[in-house]
Amino acid sequence: MTTETTATFTADNGVTFAVRIVRPGEGYGRSRAAMNDTQHTLVEVFDARFAGKDYCEAEGQIIAQYRAETLLNDPDRLTNYGLNLHGGVPEWSIDGDTMGAILFHIERNL
Questions:
Q1: CA distance 85 to 63
Q2: DSSP secondary structure string, 41-87?
């Protein structure tokens, strides 16, 4: 059974990010063309400002993908310092408080 779990979070910098949980057996990536055939739950992060654009996914422009366990491994660091999703795009940084909310969302939906 596939149950898609996506939520949006607005960081302190004003950018809204969509966070999608991808369980084993679910599709991910561009047009959900890739299959998560691992035992790991993945987390995709999108820039929701681009949601619904022709060249993006419904959630927005995909920025990054992580294993859920990687993000949950060091919550203190992420909630204190945040997460820079792409060093070349300053807007693609999530502050610590917003990361705390994202980590809670991930934990709750594993």
A1: 7
A2: -EEEEEEGGGTT-TTSBTTBEEEEEEEHHHHHT-HHHHHHH-EES-T
> How far is residue 32's CA from residue 10's CA, in Å, rounded to a whole number?
24
**Closest residue by Cα to residue 60 from 73, 46, 71, 72:** 46
Task: Identify the burial level of 47 via C-beta atoms within 10 angstroms of its C-beta, where 0-12 means exposed, 13-18 middle and 19 or more buried.
Answer: buried
pTM > 0.85: yes
Domain map (residue ranges) of the chain: 5-108
| DSSP assigned state of 90 | T
- Residue 77's contacts (CB-CB under 8 Å, 6 or more residues apart) are none
* Placement of tokens 């679910």 in the chain: 26
pLDDT in tens, 7-28: 999 999 999 999 999 999 898 8
Greater confidence (23 vs 31) lies with 23
Residue in the block written with tokens 């987390």: 43
The residue to which tokens 């047009």 are assigned? 31
